[in-house]
């Protein structure tokens, strides 16, 4: 799984989406993350097909993720949802399929479905999204296969250290959604100071912090200049002191719903 990818949450179907996916592939992105509820899988699929054709990159070199929505959680319904996502994306398989939210009483049946898809070789990897420690423990109690990924809200104001340590101990890779806190951190003085020191943008510093903390990251952007800028995070390194300064910004502050208290 690539350490770095493109997220397309809230990007509507249409040319902007298709062009963003194509531009991402052109700028070296090899991971694309979508979900059934984003209602943009068809555009993502079109961008992938055109991006591969134009770049000469092969499908096997891309890592494509989608997620089953809450209304489809259940054994048969999750398998059907997977097939529908494949149809919309125009792909023969997904590299990663996730349970989007831990809906009580439903996610364990959905996990059995993901295990079936994995064992049949129809998906390369399976995981969850927005699962807290107690959700993960509950799944693993009866699971034959451990979740491979836990994709959660993760940024300097919500660093989820306890969850990250648990995932690490269990061999579950953590992945960040909303790594830039929907743009709310781009004027933060501490981050600006560190960015200026490295002659980088605040976004690049945050994404580098993710990577050095061992967290896969999928920032969202539709602008080609931002896509290019965001990807330039492998040519510098934050010092331990800088990492600690950013770690200290944690306030357990969410911009998205709380996985223990959501009603959708």
TrEMBL record:
Gene3D superfamilies: NADP-dependent oxidoreductase domain
Tree of life domain: Bacteria
Keyword Methyltransferase attributed: no
UniProtKB keywords: Oxidoreductase
Ranges where the NADP-dependent oxidoreductase domain occurs: 15-251
Protein name: Aldo/keto reductase
Species this chain originates from: Fictibacillus marinisediminis
Site (Lowers pKa of active site Tyr): 67
InterPro entries tied to this protein: AKR, AKR5G, Aldo/ket_reductase_CS, NAD(P)_OxRdtase_dom_sf, NADP_OxRdtase_dom
Active site: 38 (proton donor)
Family per record: Belongs to the aldo/keto reductase family.
GO molecular function, one term: oxidoreductase activity
SUPFAM superfamilies named in the record: NAD(P)-linked oxidoreductase
Keyword Oxidoreductase: yes
Binding site for substrate: 100
């Amino acid at each position: 799984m690539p350490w770095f990818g493109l997220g397309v949450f809230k990007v509507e179907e249409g040319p902007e989406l298709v062009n963003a996916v194509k531009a991402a592939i052109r700028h070296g992105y090899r991971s694309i993350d979508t979900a059934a509820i984003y209602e943009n899988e068809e555009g993502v699929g079109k961008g992938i097909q055109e991006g591969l054709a134009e770049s000469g990159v092969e499908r096997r070199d891309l890592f494509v993720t989608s997620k089953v929505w809450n209304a489809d959680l259940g054994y048969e319904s999750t398998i059907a949802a997977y097939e529908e996502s494949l149809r919309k994306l125009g792909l023969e398989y997904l590299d990663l399929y996730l349970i989007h939210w831990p809906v009580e009483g439903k996610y364990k049946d959905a996990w059995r479905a993901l295990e079936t898809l994995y064992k049949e070789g129809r998906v390369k990897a399976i995981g969850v999204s927005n699962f807290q420690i107690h959700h993960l423990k509950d799944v693993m109690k009866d699971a034959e296969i451990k979740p491979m990924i836990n994709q959660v809200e993760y940024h300097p104001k919500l660093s989820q250290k306890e969850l990250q340590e648990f995932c690490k101990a269990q061999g579950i890779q953590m992945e960040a959604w909303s790594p830039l806190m929907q743009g709310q951190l781009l004027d933060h003085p501490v981050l600006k100071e560190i960015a200026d020191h490295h002659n980088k943008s605040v976004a690049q510093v945050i994404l580098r912090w993710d990577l050095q903390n061992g967290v896969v990251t999928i920032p969202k952007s539709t602008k080609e200049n931002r896509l290019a800028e965001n990807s330039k995070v492998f040519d510098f390194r934050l010092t331990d002191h800088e990492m600690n300064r950013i770690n200290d910004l944690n306030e357990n502050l969410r911009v998205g719903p709380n996985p223990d208290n959501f009603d959708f």
